Amino acid sequence: MRRLGLPDAIVIGLASMIGAGVFAVFAPAAQAAGSWLLAGLALALVVATCNATSTAQLAATYPTSGGTYVYGRTQLGPWWGFAAGWSFVIGKTASCAAMATTFAAYTVPGPWQRPVAAVAVLALTAVSWRGITRTAGLARVLVAVVLVALAVAVLGALLGGAEPPAGAGGGAAPGPQGVLQAAGLIFFAFAGYARVATLGEEVREPARTIPRAIVTTLALVAVLYAVVALTLLHVLGPAGLAASHAPLADAVAGGSASWAVPVVRVGAAAASLGALLALLAGVARTGLAMAREGDLPRGLAAVHPRFHVPHRAEAAVGACVAVAVLLVDLRELIGFSSTGVLLYYAVANLAALTQGPGQRRYPRALQVLGVVGCVVLVLTLPPASLLAGLAVLAAGLLARALVRRRRPPAPTLGP
């Protein structure tokens, strides 16, 4: 049932992005790029723009649940679609876990963080089970809280008189590898703009609404990220930012505006919950599309008769995320997520590249640049994250091959 309009779609996209970008990714990116953090941010934005236009072009043609899993199957073939869908599921499951972990890090002491993160995942899975309109409504409230908190944090940091700590000015230049790695990590924060594409069956006028929502969300968040990154570099310095576990809270606490620290923590919690809520919905709907085609267990394709949501897929995703937050650290989750998501968007760009003139909205050069950008960024991610992501992707491809070999052939028509 199509219930979401353009404002709802934009809100879901914002909720998917700002929790990751503002509260989880700038510190590890600063570790990689140092004073060249803004170059990494700009490069991530270029690749994200290419991916956003490709996704918008594809979503206008295929307004159905599943995102690039569907686009890849239709334009490139079933194996490409599976690779995209599986990359999305594993990457965004890690993103969900990262958001839950960030929420707990800003709200409870260390020993309680993992169990509280798991409880948050299960609670929001229950909310998502009640229907997509409730998801969009809660996301709207959370986004409003986050934007107010970020405004307070930026003003408090800039006007509070904080100075960069001694030795935080720069150090040696990181080199191209560091900038590329920072861009790959920051891309983790940009990926939420296409979340609305996975909700294609629940958006009104999808051919018009989805492209507008994707491009608008990306533009708004790019401005927000630039403002926050500049503020953090100015107040903490590159080295101080790289060493921080809660950069915005530290930037505010260092000056005379320490009263704003609780506001920042509330904003971080709201941002993380908003992103988690939207991500859970998106991953479940890709799982729904894959289950319909037999690429995941077909039982996950069930849709609740009352709430019209893929309740079994949502329950399965929630359970996997809850396990992940109990076992894996935040920075490992970010790198693993970036691996899966960059591979996913590489397939999206390839699929858009094969579309004909009647379906084309953007130049082919953007799709070529998107493919190259995704491949380069994924290869520069931390080796442990890259190898883990590729191993899980390979395991999924092998499992599909084994299942397809054992499955009886479809009956042929004729006498």
Automatic annotation (TrEMBL):
Pfam families: AA_permease_2 (PF13520). The keyword Cell membrane applies. GO terms for molecular function: transmembrane transporter activity. GO terms for cellular component: plasma membrane. InterPro entries: AA/rel_permease1, APC_superfamily. The chain crosses the membrane at residues 9-30, 36-59, 79-106, 112-129, 141-159, 179-198, 210-236, 266-288, 334-353. Gene3D superfamilies: Amino acid/polyamine transporter I. It is found in: Cell membrane. Keywords: Cell membrane, Membrane, Transmembrane, Transmembrane helix. It is a multi-pass membrane protein. It comes from the Bacteria. This is Amino acid permease.
